[in-house]
Amino acid sequence: MAYKINTKKCLKCGLCVTQCPEEAVVVDDKVTESDGLVLYTTRIDPDKCTDCGVCFSHEWWCPAKAIVKA
Question: Which of 14, 31, 42, 61 has its CA 20 to 30 A from that of 21?
């Protein structure tokens, strides 16, 4: 696998989950804060990831630029 999510940079917004063409970004945990904000803990599933690079090449996907080359 060529890509990973830097958990220290991740905003937990969930944009990467909805945009991956291979559905390789999966949600491990979903928490709804008291104000209604939903936070997602995500990871890249190595069995689904095809190293296509789409998540890394489209910077707008991740506002925190937390998806990095491993």
Answer: 31
Separation of alpha carbons 46 and 22, rounded Å: 11
- What is the value of pTM for the model shown? 0.83
Q: Which tens digits make up the pLDDT trace of 23-68?
A: 999 999 999 999 999 999 999 999 999 998 888 876 667 888 899 8
41, containing H or E segment? strand 38-44
Domains of the chain in start order, with CATH, are: 3-69 (3.30.70.20)
Helix (H, G, I), strand (E, B) or coil at 11: coil
Rounded CA separation 64/61 (Å): 9
